Amino acid sequence: MPTAVVLLSGGLDSYTAAALARRDGFALAALSFRYGQRHQMEIDAARRVAHALGVARHLVLDLDLSAIGGSSLTSPELAVPRDRPPDAPGIPSTYVPARNTIFLAVALGWAEVLGAHDIFIGVNALDYSGYPDCRPEFIRAFEALARVATRAGVEGAPLTVHAPLISMGKADIIRCGLALGLDYGLTHSCYDPSETGLPCGHCDSCRLRAAGFAAAGETDPALRSPGR
Q1: pLDDT grade, residue 228 (50/70/90)?
Q2: I need a surface site. Which of 43, 45, 80, 149 has the fewest CB within 10 A?
Q3: Which residues contact 123 (CB under 8 A, 6 or more apart)?
Q4: Rounded to 10 degrees, what is the CA torsion of 112, 114, 117, 119?
Q5: Topology of 3-169 in CATH?
């Protein structure tokens, strides 16, 4: 059984992408990051999700991006935007500079060590906040980089970056995950939760999640299990 490295944040998108990798016959090696994010409880969610998926190995790495700053997710002095209009212009302050580039680069290194040729990431270019590193052109560019930046690539065994959710809306992602039997009550999405883990209900991530469950005609199980 081939191995795939899956980026696992603890949110519903990465959970679904990892489940699709498992469905497609991959053994999962999961990678999560404590990067100085204010919503570090997502790491607990990532552990729950990894256990539910039967992940063979789960690395949680410390890579503190708060020293760089530039994002309301890593800089406590910056407020997380709330109740932004869906069509608000510009990239919001919750964008973490180059986060997916950094995470994929680490995943690429681990994939080489494991002899894996596949990485799965749960980025989405439809229901998202305008982040530049969630678009198809970014994924294609990173794959091109991997071909010239790794021993595997230059020796003719290029790595593939799978982004199976890239063109799916949030409701379709949720329907897909439920069809796979996923328990979204294990996940965490809120950028600015309370100390007990209650979602704020007003950040972009909370609102996209709520709209997705509503459009899918489903109840979000996380709302029935606050402060897990």
Answers
A1: very low
A2: 149
A3: 13, 100, 133, 134, 135, 138, 139, 163, 165, 166
A4: -90
A5: Rossmann fold (3.40.50)
